[in-house]
UniProtKB/TrEMBL annotation:
Protein name: Probable 28S rRNA (Cytosine-C(5))-methyltransferase isoform X2
Domain SAM-dependent MTase RsmB/NOP-type: start-end pairs: 179-465
Catalytic activity: a cytidine in 25S rRNA + S-adenosyl-L-methionine = a 5-methylcytidine in 25S rRNA + S-adenosyl-L-homocysteine + H(+)
One Gene Ontology MF term: RNA binding
Species of provenance: Durio zibethinus (Durian)
One GO-annotated biological process of the protein: rRNA base methylation
Keyword Repeat: no
Annotated gene: LOC111285027
């Protein structure tokens, strides 16, 4: 029976008994009225996107704050945001950066409002994100328990903000933000053209006139500060990589030739690995070694995006690799970019947004202990790289400004390097900034400055002076001493393989150097 019929009947004159029965029936039917059925409002795409972006931003923010608190960062803000697990990268990145930028104010407001119970304190990163949106960002829809909880207390949050303005003796919100604000670090942006997929000139045509070629790294393009290319089709397709100038100089300093076998000792996230593959024009082999299981996934994604087919990913510890193992007998160059403090990339990593940076904390006892542990590992790794018998070139690099991770590490291995026939060489002789004068040969070391160059990197290049030839460059027709003699097929293949090793002994070192070595404008021997 329709509810309207019951309602009309209840208005008619009736006996007391019939009236009670009618009203009982009306009340029983009342919950079934269409006008009172609960209706769920369908969320718009923007609301749904904002809801999930806040959750993703909270997850990233938790990793960032925990890493900053314990000085054990899993990765930079950009690394965490632009991982494959984050769907809405642009919104998440903006939320994380803006929340960090306003975090001191947000914390003071929440403390003044005194509205958080134990439940929400366990989700404080999500609370920070939503509070930023309520006070400084966009209008919040009442979706999600956290959003409902904080929007219902919006008046308390605004009152706490007003009291904070009075306490800090400022009248405008902009003045309060400036009072808390850390200096902004702006820098030119660079993209490296992945020449495995696209030529530099073609990339310039695609990207536009505001991009110019870098004068040092041939496949690097410079663009104005604050340009965002993360969603550009060339970036999404792996035709260009967002990579800083100093970072791009590392693989270029090693200067691998097509056909070499190169070992990237600490490869993840893989930007330098795929740069090596591009410099080698996809020929030869790059062994990308990485110990961390989670970072292996990032490395594999980078390799897949680059389209490189000459990279072999090796999940293992570089220090456990046996230099005498036949598997590495053809390795002629090693790129060693080990774990470091990352102190030279505060602008790129956005470390100036972190609480420790904002409070101006000096290097404390815990940080010194961490630096000592890092330096100990770096020394072991560099010493291990020097022990590979066929290696001719080694690049050691960090994104640190600390002497203990840079010049001190190089100084510690110089006697071992000399015993294996290595000496320091000068990468990029035209570069003006060199190592600290704390060791002999510091003029061969390369530094970039975090203030003037916007990144603080360190590069040391070792070259074996007694063997300047890379064996894989030998061509089979030159390696065979007498290919005209009729030999059994199996024996001839074996003879060719041995012939490659026999050529230097037969013809002498000077012939070998003249025949196979290509002079490089980037390298000056000590």
């Amino acid at each position: 029976m329709d509810w309207r019929i019951g309602f009309q009947v209840s208005l008619l004159p009736a006996t007391p008994h019939s009236s009670c029965k009618t009203m009982a029936r009306f009340k029983a039917k009342q919950p079934m009225r269409p006008a009172e059925k609960p209706r769920m409002r369908r969320l718009s795409n923007a609301e749904r996107s904002a809801y999930f972006a806040r959750r993703e931003a909270a997850k990233v923010l938790r990793s960032v704050l925990q890493g900053d608190a314990f000085r054990r960062a899993v990765g930079s803000i950009k690394t965490l945001v632009y991982s494959p697990t984050i769907k809405n990268k642009k919104a998440t990145f903006a939320l994380v950066c803006q929340t960090l930028k306003h975090l001191p104010i947000i914390k003071d407001v929440l403390e003044g409002a005194n509205i958080l119970n134990s439940r929400w304190k366990r989700q404080e990163e999500l609370v920070y994100i939503i509070t930023y949106d309520i006070l400084f960002g966009q209008e919040i829809s009442l979706i999600g328990d956290a959003e409902k909880f904080l929007v219902q207390r919006k008046v308390s949050l605004q009152s706490a903000l007003a009291r904070l303005l009075v306490r800090k003796k400022v009248k405008r919100l902009e003045d309060l933000i400036d009072l808390y604000q850390t200096p902004d670090v702006s820098k030119p942006r660079y993209v490296r053209v992945n020449t495995l997929k696209l030529g530099v000139d073609s990339a310039l045509i695609e990207l536009g006139k505001q991009y110019v070629k870098d004068n040092l790294v041939p496949d690097l393009l410079k663009l104005p500060p604050k340009c965002d290319l993360h969603d550009h089709p060339l970036v999404v397709s792996g035709c260009v990589f967002m990579q800083g100038k100093a970072s791009s100089m590392v693989a270029a300093a090693l200067d691998p030739e097509p056909g070499w076998e190169v070992l990237d000792a600490c490869a993840a996230p893989g930007n330098k690995t795929v740069h090596l593959a591009a410099l080698m024009r996809g020929k030869g082999k790059v062994i990308a070694c990485e110990l961390n299981k989670e970072r292996i996934k990032r490395l594999e994604n980078t390799v897949r995006l680059s389209g490189a087919h000459n990279i072999e990913v090796l999940h293992g510890d570089f220090l456990s690799l046996d230099p005498k193992n036949p598997l590495y007998s053809k390795v002629c160059a090693i790129l060693l970019d080990p774990s470091c403090s990352g102190s030279g990339t505060v602008a790129e990593r956005l470390d100036h947004l972190l609480p420790s940076y904002a409070t101006g904390q000096a290097v404390n006892i815990d940080e010194r202990e961490r630096l000592n542990k890092l330096a100990s590992f770096q020394k072991k790794a560099l010493a291990h790289a020097l022990c590979f018998p066929q290696v001719e070139r080694i690049v050691y690099s960090t994104c640190s400004i600390h002497q203990i991770e840079n010049e001190d590490v190089v100084k510690s291995v110089l006697p071992l390097a000399a015993s294996h026939g290595f000496q320091l060489a000068t990468p990029f002789p035209q570069w003006y900034r060199r190592g600290l004068p704390v060791l002999e040969g510091s003029e061969h070391l390369l530094r970039t400055d975090p203030v003037e160059d916007k990144e603080g990197f360190f590069i040391a290049l070792f070259i074996r002076k007694d063997r300047t030839t890379i064996q894989p460059l030998l061509k089979p027709e030159r390696a065979t001493l007498d290919s005209s003699r009729p030999l059994p097929k199996r024996k001839r293949r074996l003879n060719k393989k041995k012939g490659r090793l026999a050529v230097p002994t037969l013809f002498g070192g000077m012939f070998k150097m003249r025949l196979y070595c290509k002079p490089s404008s980037r390298i000056d021997l000590k």
